[in-house]
Design brief:
By secondary structure, this protein is of the alpha/beta class. It is about 45% helix and about 10% strand. The strands form 2 sheets. A 6-stranded parallel beta sheet has the order 5-4-3-6-7-8, sandwiched between helices. It has a two-stranded parallel ribbon with strand order 1-2. The longest helix is centred in the last third of the chain and has 34 residues. Its EC number is 2.4.1.17.
Length: about 290
Amino acid sequence: MILQIKHRAELFFINTDPVLEYSTALPPHVIPVGGLHIDDAKPLFHPWNETIEAATKGNIIVSLGNLANPAGMKPKQARSMLKALSRLSDYHIYWSVGPKLRLSDINEKDVPKHISLMAYVPQNDLLAQKRTRLLITNGGISSILEALTHGVPIVGIPLFGANKHNLNKVVHKGFGVLVEKHQLTEETLFSAIKEILNNPWYEKRAKSIKKLWQHSKRTRLADAIRWIEYVAGKHASKLSKSMVPNRSLVHLTNIDVFGISVLLLIFPLFFSYTAFLVIHFKRLQCGKK
């Protein structure tokens, strides 16, 4: 049922943007609308405004996604993250840890004052603050697009699914670094964070991409509305649809062409080997006589 709906769809809206993606060609009925979920940033009042201004060097956001519950992290990983973040006392850190407001095997007393464990973090609004220096994320596409919107560099810790693919694009574009989950220690995380904070290249790159992103984002909603009206009207976009869904696996993968090519290579070798065996056998027979 789902495949039938997918094959019959006239339009596909995808939550990404060419500014972030590798160079690729999309069919005309696949429309990038990345960032439509991002609202205008709202002002932050008590207690947010007080902690934001109190930080000596700025603010850091730690959010590993709605599906990643830091309270369920392995104790070793949670301790490594806490130790690394504890060394950044000149920054105020907002760490979204879920409704339980705790970390695995860590006493609340061990959390320093410059780290705020939050059930919820208004991520987009915090990213819009001029004093926000860094986003630590698992690599969800929505978080990456929000960081792009506000020109904030990223330290990525991919946890599952498309996280690593998304973060590889961030690294490729030059506004973030990646720490593998299985390599997550106090030192690897702290080193990645300091690389971003101490190297102005990442912030400059993030601000540069922000300008490109904002220019393209202005047209996204208009593009989506225009295409919806086009399809909903008397014009059908069938001519612009890819023929891929209607083709078999054989056609899509060119298995038939590959198979014939392999056979053309194998047959001469097979006949040559057979001829060699026949000649060799006859020589053996002649030798016996």
